[in-house]
Design brief:
Blueprint lengths: L1 H14 L3 E5 L8 H6 L4 E3 L4 H13 L3 E7 H5 L3 H9 L5 E6 L17 H5 L6 E3 L4 H11 L6 E4 L21 E4 L4 E5 L4 H12 L5 E5 L2 E3 L3 H8 L4 E9 L4 H12 L5 E6 L10 H7 L4 H12 L3
Parallel strand pairs: 1-2, 1-3, 3-4, 4-6, 5-6, 8-9, 8-11, 11-12
Antiparallel strand pairs: 5-10, 7-9
Helix pairs in contact: 1-7, 3-5, 8-12, 9-10
Length: 307
């Protein structure tokens, strides 16, 4: 996914001399082509993310379209004040590329986990949050957003994510996608972890439970209409994300359900609200937090027994 997004930016920089790229001393093996061909529009800002956002803001205020690139916790939390005051309050044409969403950097411990980014960016005015599921959707989104001239955060995995879409589809800004229909439960999910949702749906089908899987690739703005229409008549409404249980997709969907379908419970899958003191691969960590297909299936089955 990361390489696909960088390739789309490279193509945009070829056709538009007004596009600039800033990196926080990251991106080796993926940014060399941009650096070599556009040396006057590529800046390695070093490990100084607050300054990077400040420089990006200055460029954007002078009419440039700017991309900034770093590991998610560093490019969101470390420079949150600059994103809030400089980028969002002034509605600037800056795209924040957060690499290593969720538990992607699992072996580097909690300092590199990306479990609060949606929660802190979602309340900011003018901010759009795009969380693609795979390389194909990432490319479709990038082609749409090249004409988007407002603050944008793209939540990117690391590399070699599972391909969910076999071919391009009609990507629509702010509109979710029904990946698999189902009449019993509905799972609203975002990002690469949708692969686990699809596997869980296969396991649930063996138990005669049909799970509908919906990809909410745009977390802000959220597709309220789809959430409302597809939640009605379901035994259970579920959210799934590789993010903290508080403030992310689950909270966003719960707000919609609470306002328009009061009385319906939302079951949220995410990382529990406590410090994480274990490390390991993304696959290992998903299993620890019941975010793998088996954990998802088992938890849903237990909950359905109470109905």
């Amino acid at each position: 996914m990361r390489s696909a997004i960088i390739e789309e930016i490279y193509n945009l920089m070829k056709e538009n001399g007004n596009v600039y790229f800033l990196t926080g001393d990251l991106g080796y093996d993926v940014l060399e082509k941009i650096e070599a061909e556009f040396p006057n529009r590529f800046y390695n800002m070093g490990v100084a993310e607050q300054n990077m956002i400040g420089v990006a803001s200055g460029l954007a205020l002078s009419g440039k379209k700017v991309f900034v690139f770093s590991i998610t916790p560093f490019v969101t939390m470390r420079c949150y004040e600059q994103i809030r005051n400089d980028v969002c309050f002034h509605d600037l044409d800056i795209t924040i590329l957060g690499i290593g969403s969720g538990l992607s950097y699992g072996i580097l411990s909690s300092t590199h986990f990306s479990l609060e980014d949606i929660a802190i960016l979602r309340p900011l005015p003018n901010m759009t949050i795009f969380s693609p599921v795979d390389e194909i959707e990432a490319r479709l989104g990038m082609r749409y957003f090249k004409n988007h001239h407002h603050p944008l955060y793209i939540r990117i995995g690391k590399k070699k994510e599972e391909i969910i879409y076999k071919q391009p589809y009609d990507f629509q800004y702010g509109k979710g996608v029904i990946i698999r229909p189902g009449k019993d439960v509905v799972i609203f999910a975002t990002g690469p972890i949708i692969g686990e949702a699809l596997s869980a749906a296969d396991l649930l089908k063996e138990k005669n439970i049909e799970a509908e899987i919906i990809n909410l690739h745009t977390i802000k703005p959220l597709d309220n209409d789809l959430i409302i229409s597809e939640s009605q008549g379901k035994k259970l409404i579920i959210t799934l994300e590789e993010h903290g249980i508080i403030g992310g997709l689950g909270s966003a969907v719960s707000e919609v359900i609470g306002e328009y379908l009061p009385g319906n419970r939302v079951m949220r899958f995410g990382v529990e609200d406590k410090p994480i003191n274990i490390v390991g691969s993304q696959t290992f960590l998903r299993k620890q937090f019941c975010l793998d297909s088996i954990g998802i299936m088992d938890t849903i089955l237990k909950e359905l027994k109470t109905y």
